[in-house]
Amino acid sequence: MPELIERPQQPYVGMRRTVTMRSIPEIADRLPEVFGWLAERGVAPAGAPFLKYNVIDMAGDLEMEAGVPVASPVDGDDRVFAGVLPAGRYARVTHVGHPDELEAATANLLAWARQEGLRWDSAPAGRGERWTCRLEIYHTDPRQQPDMTKWETDLVFRVAD
Questions:
Q1: Distance, CA of 90 to CA of 74 (rounded, Å)
Q2: Average pLDDT for 77-92
Q3: Distances (CA, A) of 65 to 2, 13, 155
Q4: CATH number of residue 138's parent domain
Q5: CA separation for the pair 88, 76 (Å, rounded)
Q6: How many folded domains does the chain comprise?
Q7: Distances from the Cα of 133 to the Cαs of 14, 39, 50, 107, 117, in angstroms?
Q8: Neighbours of 59 (CB within 10 A)
Q9: Which residues lie across from 131 on neighbouring strands?
Q10: C-alpha angle 80-144-79 in degrees, rounded to nearest 5
């Protein structure tokens, strides 16, 4: 069941890419590079990795990030950038199941928000929508749980003030 939560600011490091709906795995596959970058600097992740959807054009390109939270801000470089997820009110739902089911889980979260009269912190951007913060947070490590039907993912979308 979806819920409203308050999230504090969260520093993170990540990589940005432009992908299509079919090529989203290309950005997700970059997460090991981000973890490696952190390990080289002796920085431990402060939470689960995520995909951040910045601009969504379902029929065209998506501007996305693959990121990992860190406890305190760090400087990025030519391999990864450093950012901060904004504080604020978010709608969250947890999905347990195959990642292919996330599209349906997202549709259910969007429908719930409409029913509750919530507006997303997003704006039109050319052919798509620019989101302040729309996350898929991956709590399951595939190396420890190979059964994808048991993976746990949070969908966390920032609500407009």
A1: 25
A2: 97
A3: 24, 9, 15
A4: 3.20.80.10
A5: 24
A6: 1
A7: 14, 26, 11, 17, 19
A8: 8
A9: 122
A10: 10
Rounded to whole angstroms, the maximal C-alpha distance in the chain is: 46
Distances (CA, A) of 104 to 73, 78, 95, 97, 153: 34, 36, 10, 11, 13
Contact 23, 2 (CB under 8 A): no
User: Which pLDDT tens digit goes with each residue over 57-71?
Assistant: 878 899 999 999 999
The residue to which tokens 């920085």 are assigned = 43
Q: Do 76 and 13 touch, CB atoms closer than 8 A?
A: yes
Structure tokens given for 13? 């490091």
Q: What is the pTM of this model?
A: 0.94
Q: By residue range, what is the domain housing residue 136? A: 3-158
Q: Which residue has the tokens 């601009």?
A: 55
Those residues whose C-beta lies under 8 Å from the C-beta of residue 42, and which sit 6 or more positions away, are none
Structure tokens at 77: 């470089």
Rounded distance, CA 18 to CA 61, Å?
6
